[in-house]
Design goal:
The structure is a single chain. The chain is built from 2 helices and 8 strands; from the N terminus they run βαββββαβββ. The protein is an alpha/beta fold. It has one domain: 2,3-Dihydroxybiphenyl 1,2-Dioxygenase, domain 1, CATH 3.10.180. The chain has a 4-stranded mixed sheet, with helices on one face. It starts with 9 loop residues before the first strand and ends with a strand.
């Protein structure tokens, strides 16, 4: 039985097959389950969970979508080895939105270093992978 996170984003995509190839084959996400009749998939990756549904089949759409989807939001995804994932995506020909580097963020009175990079998925969603 899957333990669901308290918050699981469900993202609308243009092509569910392309999304599955990107997230599963390239990034290494796990397919937890899918409903092919709804063009829906539930994926997980090192404690993160995302749902995807193809646009126009079902879903709750508040307005027409235009590429890039998800404007104004980025999804931070913690990974055990951010450098290995970065090498995998660059070897696959993916150009990072922001290359791998260590940024420092203030958290109250402390500064927290965070090794991270950003890429866009096939629908333009911005993914920020950080060393967990």
């Amino acid at each position: 039985m899957i333990k669901f996170n308290a918050l699981i984003p469900e993202l609308t995509v243009c092509d569910i097959a392309k999304t599955k190839a990107f997230y599963i084959d390239l990034l290494g996400f796990t397919l937890e389950y899918e409903r092919e009749e709804d063009t829906f998939v539930f994926l997980s990756f090192q404690g993160s969970q995302l749902m995807f549904e193809q646009y126009g089949i079902n879903g709750w759409h508040t307005a027409d979508l235009a590429y890039p989807y998800g404007r104004g939001v980025n999804f931070e995804i913690g990974v055990a080895d951010v450098e290995s994932l970065y090498l995998r995506i660059t070897k696959a020909g993916i150009t990072p939105f922001r290359p791998l580097k260590t940024n420092t963020y203030r958290q109250g009175a402390h500064s927290i270093p965070q090794k991270e990079f950003l890429i866009q998925d096939p629908d333009g969603y911005l993914l920020r992978f950080v060393e967990a």
